[in-house]
Amino acid sequence: MRISKMTTNAAIHSSLWGENALPLRPANQVMKLERLGAYHQSRLSFMRTLVRRIFRERWKITPSLFNLDKDGYGTVVYEVQAPHGIFSFVLFSDYLSAEERNDRVIATKWDLTMALVEGVVDQPYIEKLRQNVPRQEAGRVDARVFVLSRANRSARNFDYVVDQLAVGQQPDVTKIAEVGYLYRTTAVYGSGKLGMADWEKVREKHKDFARPFAGEMFVCLMLRNFSLLQVEHIARHKSPESFNEMKPEIKRYFGIGNSTGLGMAPYLVNHPLLINQWVEMRELALARVRVLGGINDKVRDTLNQLIDRSAQHTHETITEDEWQTNNNKDVIKDMSALKSRIESGFDSWNELVEFSEQHCSLQGQEMLVSCMLEMYPELVDELEDFHSADEYLDLDPLMPTQTLKEIIETRYDWALAIDFDAEGARETYWYRSEEKMEPRLGSVADIEGKKKQMALGVGYAVRKCYNQLVEYMHQHPDHTTARFMVAHPKLRGIVRRIQGMNRCVYGDIQANLLDREVLPMHLLRAKLAFFGVSKFDPRSKLWVRNTMFQGAPLLEEIGETFNDDWFMPLAPKQ
């Protein structure tokens, strides 16, 4: 299986280029932490690929149980008929007082709790879910469930929208732009947690959700659909005489809010083969466009429109964070510079990419990449099928130590270049808080806390391994890795990673995550961009608010003409 995945990737490359090498950007450019933190959504982001499949395959998503009272509390079940199976989306809406509302992972009550379940659910099973799903971590579910989530209402938007619709008015778009959602998720769980089906079962048994995070993204899409339905339901009951439905273009502008903290950061370090796959497909898409993307007047006009949209979308992103505000200002300037360059004429995508690398910020450069991918679905979209990876980092015991040393010196030259003895270079460590159940950053001054640290300092681990390997080879230059492992068994994990990652182009984040000045926000931003979120609003250097599925088509539009045109959505005009 592992060989077939690598072979498949090779086939993707060779099918277009024959014996010529792909013009992929090098890892020492792409895998820098700051560049990963400059990523934006693209047509390869998981939300985009999920919605494309749902509309292309015409999934049938209909409520099989709709039991809400006039205030919107109760139980709703949607039956989901996908090409390879039937699923149920089960949602519980409960009253939550202002005092009980808490977006932290340690909360115990929420406005909504929900589960994605295989098959059709009957009333006894719904009752079983009712006893556990609203309890989230305190409850337990069985392996029919493969995604569990919860959400809270937006204090600024929910009641306001209900009141507007009840009196026959549309919500003010400028107000929606400040908070582009009615609900925000506080957690979306999958992959075997709390008794749920593990990823292997989902991948093998449920082909409709066999892509990374497809089930989790679907639950968020369904939450967005329910939020729009619920506000209309409450408003209709509040004032049936004057109630008016929300306009479709305003509905589409509502997304789902999300708050993401450090819990997401370790994933990018602990799943290097998967991250390599995500990055490689994005870079391969860019390479295809740079070489095969034809350029004519229509293409230039479309690119101008996308750049204008990106600038306006960035302008409409509201944040109080000074760092993000300055980044957004830079992106808007970058889009203006790119537009001027386009108007002066360009004959190849390489010219424009090189111009961006010389004159634009990292976020501006990566925004151009997203715009370029948007223009060529025929070159890009098929790559969405290759976002999975078999995550095996096998030890090669017969590898000569000289070969292992050469791999470190070439692939991990970035780690060897870091001075880990410099002041502050090893001041930070990562640990999981038992009280908050979330990853945290600690200082080496906390000796007791350091004993619980997570193994995220890959660069430092490589450096220590290299030093001990060189010392060992002075005595035993002709030994194999197996003999080295016998002498240094504690290095087995990092040696396995070094050998395994040598099969990849990307995957390892080239940064010292133990440094005093490390900015975890870059890690959060990178993963969220792969998901497809927008409107990044950092609340500190440790967590960020964002919006999911803003601009996406509505479920009731399945079966209609689908243009897949919700890249960098803009506020509708009223």
What does this structure look like?
The chain is α+β, with helices and mostly antiparallel strands and 574 residues long. The protein is 45% helix and 14% strand. The strands form two sheets. The protein has a nine-stranded mixed sheet, sandwiched between helices. A two-stranded antiparallel sheet has the order 8-9. The longest helix is centred in the middle third of the chain and has 25 residues, at 214-238. It starts with a helix and ends in a 26-residue tail after the last strand. The model is unreliable at 1-8 and 14-20 (pLDDT under 50).
In DSSP terms (H or I, runs of 4 or more residues), the helix count works out at 24
Strand order of the largest sheet: 1-2-3-4-5-6-7-11-10
Biggest sheet features: 9 strands, mixed
How helical, in percent, are the residues?
A: 40-55%
Distance between the termini: 53 Å
Structural class call reads: alpha+beta
Indicate the proportion of strand residues.
5-15%
Uncertain runs: 1-8, 14-20
